[in-house]
Design a protein that fits this description.
- The complex is a heterodimer of chains A (about 90) and B (about 475).
- Chain A is an all-alpha fold and about 90 residues long.
- Chain A has a single domain (about 5-80), classed as Non-ribosomal Peptide Synthetase Peptidyl Carrier Protein, Chain A (Orthogonal Bundle), CATH 1.10.1200.10.
- Chain A has four helices and no strands.
- The N and C termini of chain A lie close together (about 10 Å).
- By secondary structure, chain B is an alpha/beta fold.
- Chain B has 18 helices and 18 strands.
- In chain B, strands 1, 2, 9, 10, 11, 12 and 18 form a seven-stranded mixed beta sheet that branches.
- Classes of the chains: A mainly alpha (about 90), B alpha/beta (about 475).
């Protein structure tokens, strides 16, 4: 996946997790928490969904990398570069 | 030949979940949806654990723990169960307090509490805001030395009435006391304060029935009346469970049994490090409860202004040891109106709950035990008469449960109805480092108790189980 494809995938997961949020205005360089109501269970759900969909393992110590869209995509890029978007 | 309750179960599963409380049920569902083969074993004949109910002649259905939980349940139910379950969660708006210090009704959220504290209790707005913000900002890994009493004294020194308002409902919700760490109070209190108190429309029976259907859709094999005798952990990793005389092999076990029971009875302390065993032994169980169940005659209706939850007390001040005393002064009444079960026959029921000690009930002779239960019923009816006049003439059915009853149905050591004190959380979390493939989730550490805490802890641990299974597959 390219960076753009990874971003679309993360947006798709976020729309499942927070169906009431408007994601169209989401700023990539600002933390998710500042723009949406996300708690620690929500971040856990992102991790579980990435594993379910793409078999990606994210250790607990790396959860901090999921703070914003930019940091998430940068973190996922090497892990997802060989995955085909379906 | 006795019935084979394991009929149809396979000889191997990715995960065996022991216990069908809300943590076990939710973990089983999450793991099955992640593609794991899951066997769910429950010793009782019903799923739900402490999220349970019972029926009595006359169309009465009593709920044990339905009222109430924080708004977070809506999100957790939608995500880990179904939209239908989430859509049945409704708010309880009539939360009442009645004690020698004050009487009031509240919607039990931050806005209303702020107003009450400033206008009725005359507390400075800065103290109220400071308290709420401090509670809101607490995390479970924060300082554990500060007690709840010290937290209150910092913001509301000398205000026993304010302490009572803030503490009594949380004691009812999770058995915590003024001596427990402030973080365990702050986290649970803030969860409630965000939007108020909620319940499940249709009753506990409908919730658990819907969950069972979801589990079947997800492919979980569910077996009731299956009491796990042993978890085989030879060679430092989980091998199998022994249940009803059969051995079932598995990649992981997630125990939703009581924490100490899991370590000392199901596994055996010889499989753990000495230091870990010492820590586990030092874990204090939380207290148990007594409840009195009262059903009104079929045509009788209680005015809904009586409230949904009523924290009543005749004690002059709020004190932890008084709460556990056999000489009961504090009772929480949960009122269940016909709207609790819109699909069922219209009934009004009241459940009175009081925290209690197992040892006060366990050693009685049969005659003493029966007399104590009868006394509990009588004194509770006397106390309720103030709120539901002529209650004695209006009841169709009255009975009581004690810590011994809770132990009988849940098999929890000492009938613990709120899991363990705070230190239980660290022990529960450390189990997988002791034995590969062994996990525990359930009511621990006060913050992981209650319906929402148990459910979310089940998800957190399910995530770890799934991660471990994936890592071991890579290694193999």
């Amino acid at each position: 996946m390219t960076r753009d494809e990874i971003k679309l995938e993360v947006l798709d997961i976020l729309s499942d997790i927070a169906p009431d949020e408007d994601l169209s205005q989401l700023k990539d360089d600002v933390s998710f928490r500042e723009q949406m109501e996300l708690d620690s269970m929500d971040f856990l759900d992102i991790v579980m969904e990435l594993r379910k969909r793409h078999r990606i393992q994210i250790p607990e110590d790396d959860y901090v990398n999921l703070a914003s869209m930019d940091s998430t995509v940068t973190f996922l890029e090497p892990l997802m570069k060989d995955i085909q978007r379906v | 030949m006795p019935k084979d309750f394991l009929k149809g179960a396979r000889s191997h599963y990715d995960v065996v979940v022991i216990g069908a409380g809300l943590a076990g049920l939710t973990a089983a569902n999450v793991l099955a949806r992640a593609g794991r083969s899951v066997l769910l074993l429950e010793q009782h004949y019903k799923l739900g654990g402490m999220a349970t109910w019972f029926k009595r002649p006359g169309g009465h259905i009593f709920d044990i723990s339905l009222h109430g939980f924080p708004v977070g349940m809506i999100k957790s139910c939608r995500r880990y169960w179904s939209q239908e379950i989430a859509d049945s969660i409704v708010q309880l708006t009539g939360i009442r307090f009645d004690n020698p210090m004050f009487s009031l009704t509240t919607t039990f959220n931050r806005d209303d509490f702020t107003k009450l504290l400033i206008e009725q209790f005359q507390v400075a707005p800065e103290a109220v805001q400071g308290f709420f913000d401090t509670a809101r900002g607490m995390n479970f890994y924060d300082d554990q030395q500060t007690t709840t009493r010290e937290l209150f004294d910092r913001f509301f020194p000398g205000r026993e009435d304010v302490i009572r308002l803030l503490m009594e409902p949380i004691t009812y919700a999770n058995g915590s006391t003024l001596e427990d760490p402030a973080i365990s109070y702050g986290i649970v209190f803030s969860n409630f304060m965000s939007k108020g108190v909620f319940t499940f429309e249709g009753g506990t029976d409908r919730l658990i029935h819907l969950m069972e259907e979801e589990l079947k859709k997800s492919g979980v094999d569910i077996h009731i009346n299956c009491n796990v005798e042993h978890i085989d952990c030879s060679g430092g990793r989980v091998r199998s469970v022994t249940v009803n005389g059969k051995t079932i092999t598995c990649g992981a076990v997630m125990s939703n049994a009581n924490l100490k029971q899991t370590i000392f009875n199901l596994v055996g302390e010889e499989y753990f490090d000495k230091n870990f065993v010492d820590d586990a032994r030092a874990v204090r169980l939380n207290n148990s409860s007594t409840q009195v169940y009262m059903a009104l005659k079929p045509d009788d209706v209680i005015d809904e202004s009586t409230g949904d939850l009523l924290f009543s007390s005749t004690a002059p001040v709020f004190q932890t040891d008084l709460l556990l005393s056999r000489d009961i002064t504090s009772r929480t009444f949960s009122f269940y109106y016909p709207r609790t079960r819109p699909q069922g026959r219209p009934r009004c029921l009241i459940v009175s709950s009081t925290n209690a000690r197992y040892e006060d009930w366990a050693d009685l002779t049969e005659a003493e035990y029966d007399a104590s239960k009868q006394d509990l019923c009588e004194t509770t009816l006397d106390a309720l008469d103030k709120y539901v006049p002529n209650i004695r003439e209006r009841v169709d059915h009255v009975e009581a449960s004690t810590p011994v009853t809770f132990k009988h149905y849940t098999q929890h050591i000492a009938g613990a109805s709120f899991g363990t004190k705070f230190e239980g959380l660290a022990v529960s979390r450390a189990i997988p480092q002791q034995i590969t493939g062994l996990f525990h989730a359930g009511s621990v550490g006060i913050i992981m108790s209650g319906w929402l805490g148990a459910m979310n802890y089940g998800v957190i641990v399910a995530n770890e189980v799934d991660t471990a299974l994936m890592s071991s597959a890579v290694k193999n």
